Amino acid sequence: MIQVFAEVPQGIQTAPHELRMAAAGHQVAVREVDLTHVRDRDSLMMAFLAGLALTQSFGRNWDALYDVLTDPQQFSGRLAVVLCDYAHFKKKRAALAAELEGVLMDAQQSAAEQGRLLWLLAEERDTDTKHW
C-alpha cells in the first residue's frame, strides 16, 4: 500500500483506510468536510465552515476558502482535508465540484510554494458493508 503522507500532495487523492493513524505517524493535522448534504455553494461553504472549525467570520465564498487553506496562521505546515462522500457529491453537483476542485488545486499549489503540505483526500462512505 502506498503511504499517501510519505509523498508530496498531488491533486485529490484517495484517503487511506487507516487515515488518522497514518496522519498521526506523519504529524499531519486532519480536518473532515462532509459533503453528503451539500446542495449548493452556500451549503458547501457551511460544510467547510464546520469541517475546518472556522469562525462565523469566514466569508463563505471561494476567495475566503482559498485564503483559509493558504493562511499559515490558520493551519501550520501539514494539513489533510478529507472530503467525505466526494464521489457522490461530484456526480450530483458536477459544476460545483469543478469550481471547488479549482480552488482546492490553487490552494494546494500556493501552500507548496510556501513550503507547506496540503493533502486533499477523497473518502467514500462504505456502501458495501451491511450492518446486521
Please give the count of helices.
5
Number of strands: 4
Q: If strands are numbered along the chain, what order do they take across the biggest sheet?
A: 1-4-3-2
Shape: globular
Classify the beta-strand content into a percent band: 15-25%
Q: What would CATH call the architecture?
A: 2-Layer Sandwich
Give the H and E element order.
Answer: EHEHHEHHE
Corresponding CATH superfamily:
Barstar-like
Determine the CATH topology: Barnase, Chain D
CATH class: Alpha Beta
Mean pLDDT across all amino acids: 91
Low-pLDDT parts are: 128-132
Q: What number of structural domains do the residues give?
A: 1
Give the termini separation.
Answer: 30 Å
Topology:
Layout lengths: L11 E3 L4 H7 L3 E6 L6 H11 L10 H9 L7 E7 L1 H7 L1 H20 L3 E7 L9
Helix pairs in contact: 3-5, 4-5
Organism: Deinococcus cavernae
Protein name: Nuclease inhibitor
InterPro entries: Barstar, Barstar-like_sf
Folded structure, characterized:
With 132 residues, the chain is α/β, with parallel strands linked by helices. The chain is built from 5 helices and 4 strands, in the order βαβααβααβ. α3 packs parallel to α5. The C terminus is likely disordered.
